[in-house]
Amino acid sequence: MTIEELPKFKKILIIRLSSLGDILLTTPFIRSIKSQFPKIEIDFVLRTQYSDVLKLNPYLNKVFSFSRIEKDNFEKLKEIKNSKYDLVIDLQNNLRSKKIVSKIKAQSVSFSKNRWNKFLLVNFKINNLKDASQIPVRYSQTIPGFKLDDYGLDLITDKAVSAELVQKENLIGFCPGARHFTKRWPIEYYMELGKMLTANGYTIVLFGGNIDKEICTSIANEIPEAINLSNNDDILQTGADMKLCKAIVCNDSGLIHTASTAGTKVVTIFGSSVKEFGFTPYNCTNLILENNLLTCRPCSHIGRSSCPKKHFDCMQLIKPQFVFEKVISFITDK
Fold it and tell me: Do residues 123 and 235 share a domain?
């Protein structure tokens, strides 16, 4: 199908089951479809644990939250089958999403994951992705000819700012967690950076979900002035609090993209992953720090539990003093 065909559709279903960052990266596509074709109703399917990400999105008609337990989705799948969609856009493109698509009698298109080119880059360092677009643009390319607007990601929150941040100034956020080890800048480096920034009049705010609590607590114990706002995956609270920060320092994790919605400056430290995979901060003021001198990067497109070369130089050689200087320059640059 092409952009010329889109006006004929009355109801569209978009599928992106997981994860946090991937779902946030769909929001420019959702918004652009609705703004260009306001009569189209758009529904969305995602995993229950990420339902808050789109709960208040004004461009969606309905959000279906699917459980990982297949039998729990029976009634929702039945409702989807009876909803008479004209078009299904599968942005997940895996066995689970294809199973949903197979139940719906509608035209469908799916996201190209560039699996072969990612395989070549990771395993043979053959880089066919030098000119690859960021993921939101690639999502939009499921409809040839479709163009996104010029805005960033959406995370609509109804949460008030946490009391700990009220009347605070010079806040810098840290997102020190990530699901995979090789995507995490060393915790001791975050501690050292935090101490440098604190000594220069900044207050560190620690952000993270359930899996990041231990890391955030360890950093807070080393930096008594820091404010630890890691929580039980309350992404809407995190999004509200991030808006008060002058900048947010992140690993390559879903919280990059949460930070990208906040209207603040975003500093991202890349380790085993690279920009070519497309998961960089989208349409926001950002700075990417990475070690481009290594021939072993990337060693994975999703991250690893350990460094396959045993040295972890992709992160170990990005020193706190270097990051401190970059962050200060970035914050003060008008």
Answer: no
